[in-house]
């Protein structure tokens, strides 16, 4: 079983990408997702009968991506969502989450470390 958390975020042009950390028994890896991609995962889960926590809402009249404190707040809320989701073993075992993890493994995010 994996634990999933939002370890960080970065701005890519005018978009925000969240670094999602997957920690398994034998491996840990990072992948990057936009809010809309994580919302799509939640929407898929919502179409099934699996138990899931409430997904952080989208700001209707304010652009989150243009405000650092809102992005940080969303990161905290997304992290709490995944923390709660990971506690529901029946949901973590469902095919939608398993496919999400497999997809993340195919799209591992690697950061380069500057060398002196």
Question: What is the secondary structure topology, with strand pairs?
Answer:
Layout (H helix, E strand, L loop, with lengths): L2 E10 L2 E9 L4 E6 L1 H12 L21 H19 L2 H4 L2 H12 L10
Antiparallel strand pairs: 1-2, 2-3
Pfam families: PX (PF00787)
Protein name: PX domain-containing protein
Organism: Paramecium octaurelia
Written overview of the protein:
It is a single chain. With 116 residues, the protein is of the alpha+beta class. It is 41% helix and 22% strand. It contains four helices and three strands; from the N terminus they run βββαααα. It has helices at 35-46, 68-86, 89-92, 95-106, and strands at residues 3-12, 15-23, 28-33. Strands 1-2-3 form a three-stranded antiparallel beta sheet. Strand 2 (15-23) and strand 3 (28-33) form a beta hairpin. The radius of gyration is 15 Å and the shape is globular. Residues 112-116 have low confidence and may be disordered.
